[in-house]
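DUF7931 domain-containing protein
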Amino acid sequence: MTSQEQNDGVHAVSGPGAVADVRLQLLQATRYKLAIYLPNLPATAFSTSEELAELRRIGISGRGAEIRVVLGDPDTALREGHRLIDLAQRLPSVLRIRTPIEEDQNTNEVASAWMLNDTSGYLLLPDADRWEGRAALRDGPGHAPLLLKFEQIWERAQPASGLQPLGL
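Predicted structure tokens:
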């Protein structure tokens, strides 16, 4: 086993800097598809120039490119002028944001945040308000149940229509 393969496995993540580093690594490893679940969108998440450049790269990566975000509080992110919202307005067919239905907001997942890419990488923060969790750049067995849960929530979620540009 190479040192890179060892680094790709599940490991603990603690602290805002470590979480930001893992987020960027996962974005860089993403080919075409990304799934993100956030109860709220912190100002520091998905807002750096590097992260936005990677999101843009994924968004224009070609046929099948898809960035899906389930966001519990899109109105606050819009009001605060979060840069991810601006990018979603510029790439509406690729970067789609939905809000979870009320039943999904009353589950344990509402307190957690996670990010999944198409290379079996993930970042899971069991409590979205704390900078502690686990991550892996490649972990199919850990990735699969998170993706299944995301798909279920995504299918029930409603489009965040308040985020659409007015097109004046």
